[in-house]
Structure prediction request, 262 residues.
Amino acid sequence: MMAVNFARSGWRKRSGWQSFKHSVRHLTNGERPLPASSQVVVCGGGAIGCSVAYHLAKVGFREIVLLEKGSLGCGTTWHAAGLVPQVKGSHAEIRMRKYGVKLYSEISQETGLDTSWKGVGSLLIASNEGRLTSLKRTQCLGRLHGVAAEIVSPTECSKLCPLIRVEDLVGGLWVPSDGNVIPTDVVQSLTKGAKMKGAKIFEKVSVEKIEVRNGRVHGVKTNRGDISCEVFVNCAGQVSFIQLFMFLSLGAHVPRELTVIF
Prediction:
């Protein structure tokens, strides 16, 4: 269980969905015709898809097309909590989460659009000794990756997050460098950063079929025409990921494991 100290976060009220759609409209390519070809096609315009487009452009890819069947950020991103914990998951995930903290706090200097990053810290709490032992292991894992974390008493938990009841707690883990963002603000900033580096962003374009030739992705069919590509990146959510494995029967190899290199 994690409690984030919103009382100190200065968390602002989210704007309405219509306001968000209006704010990102100028970041897309609107009703312009789709390109006939692209080096990379990214499917899905949420935080993950926009991040993929931004980082591919950052490392030198110059032909990137992102396709979103609705509006940017209209899916899971829209109702995500925006919490950014670092000490969680595998070693690779922790390193990616650390990078995320750096990215969210600095990308506005590049794009001029704030992610609403608030580095208010996070508090993991324990109501029994077994859970506290687990948090101590998490603390060690964080230290291994340079993430400062401190085991705190129930009284200290109460001071850090006055909204919680601590009578049944035995301790907690305080990670001061964690924080939160507003996910739709992240989408805006990443989208602008990707476009600044040459990526093309299209809304109201759905991927209807993936073309495969000789065991490789050759292109995609959409409701607005076909695009040939060398690389297809699926960032359209869990259901689309399951559907993507259906293309194994067409001869395309989909990696089941990913090696993250830093």
Notes: Confidence is low (pLDDT under 50) at residues 1-15.
